[in-house]
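Dear Dr. V.,

Thank you for agreeing to look over these. As mentioned in my earlier message, I'm a first-year student in the group and I'm still getting used to reading structure tokens, so any feedback on how I've presented them would be very welcome. I ran two proteins. I've put each sequence directly above its structure. The first is here:
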Amino acid sequence: MSPLRRRDRPVLVYDGDCGFCTSSARFLERHVPVRAEFVPFQFADLEDLGTTVERAEHEVLWVDRLGRVSGGADAVGRLLTDAGGAWRAVGVVMRVAPVSWAARAVYRLVATNRHRMPGGTAACSLPAAERPGGSRPPR
């Protein structure tokens, strides 16, 4: 992997082949004053971002301005913290025990069942390489 590098904006990496993930990312872009760039992992330079395809297939990723990568519920908490205002308080609380334990459990439950969520399809339950019409970047 390449060394971490500073960036102008944080990056949220999500699964662009998953309807639920894409809908969730669009919701956040519309309703939370984020300064981040939203990128489907299928079109991201994951090596440059300091992560892997395997991790991006498993969870949403937050890459901060310093190049540090967080995943899952912690990534969502960091996105909310970065948004500022009341969102900052929600994001901070999400990342502090015992709320962080519940946030991780809820995130994992939703991620495991994303094909059952609104906007999700049966393809969302398959690994990216096995999805119909799905794309997987070269390793």
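The second protein is here, in the same arrangement:
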Amino acid sequence: MNMSIRNHWDTESVTYDSFVVKGFSIKKEREAWQTLFLDALKSKNLRLLDVGCGPGIVSMQLADLGYSMTAVDFSEKMLAAAVKNAADNNLKIDFHHGDAENLPFEDEFFEGVVSDYMLWTVPHPEKVISEWFRVLKPGCRIAYVDGNWVSDPKMTRLKVCLSNLGVFLDSPSRCFHGKCEVSADLQTLWSVNASRPADDIKMMEKAGFTDICVRHNIQDSVLHGIRHLAYGSTNDHFMITAVKPHTS
């Protein structure tokens, strides 16, 4: 994976970590995310892989429900934060340093794959999706969250200003570093010019996934109050779920 991506997330690790740690500590928000992923995965007690785990928020949410979690990230600073967060919450998660485009796991090893706000940052999303397919057991499910960060029609000047105010009220230090925005070193990413989630669906189909479903505006059910104003009022946060079919 491009080193500029790792450098970007290494730089963002402190402010992003504080954002997700706060989210995990808010019971209503944590339980809303857990319900969302439970509905998407359909089953409990699965061996799951979290790709692009960042500070570990999704892995922690799912480990808290009893899932067996393995997590991987390209940023060593994000991984260090994730290890600390898991330990602070007494959650057992198997963390690995690795590239989402070349996952360090065997074929058909996991009973589910999850990912959270990661695919937009990778240089070659089709490779990542192909890797998801490879490590997933047949009949099992992928559930990932992302957003349309560039061309969403909700990104009016007024809403962006109100959102920035919400970021400041929720986390003043994060306000000065931005939210999930496209920084200068990421301008060449595929997601800048993509039609999302339409392009995601095409890549998922090409990789071999079936039963592909999209749930739009999930932020309306998981974020509340100031945090919804800050992080959920200007973009469509969507979840895509799909199944790796059994071979005939």
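From my reading of the second output: DSSP finds ten helices and seven strands in the chain. Residues 3-25 form the longest helix (23 residues). Does that match how you would interpret it?

Kind regards,
E.
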